Amino acid sequence: MKSTNSCCTTEASGETLPLANALKALGHPARLEIIRQLAARERCCGGDFCKTLPLAQSTISQHLEMLRAVGLVDWRAEGTRSIYSLNKSRLATVCEQLAIVSASQYSVEPNPVHPLPESSK
Known about the structure:
The protein is mostly helical. The protein has 5 helices and 3 strands. The chain has a 3-stranded antiparallel β-sheet.
């Protein structure tokens, strides 16, 4: 039976699941590198990633598909080529949502067990 007095629920809000899926997609080094490369250029051919990442083409395709599934990467066919581009609007939305999650309306006391490094203070 679900408690109505709890401050936490197991149900995700309408924004939580898409954000979690986007963060999961960004949680792999190869996918982060793909995002970095797309951010540096307007568009990339699928073969461009094969030249810069030490991964098989099929593996890169799987990573690109995951990024497409969460809306971070757009795809279009250009002849026989697959052209990928960064969905900057979606990435900005993910960043904004993460900032909202990380912002707190309550002051957070420093953790004495894991203090911030001097450069972070």
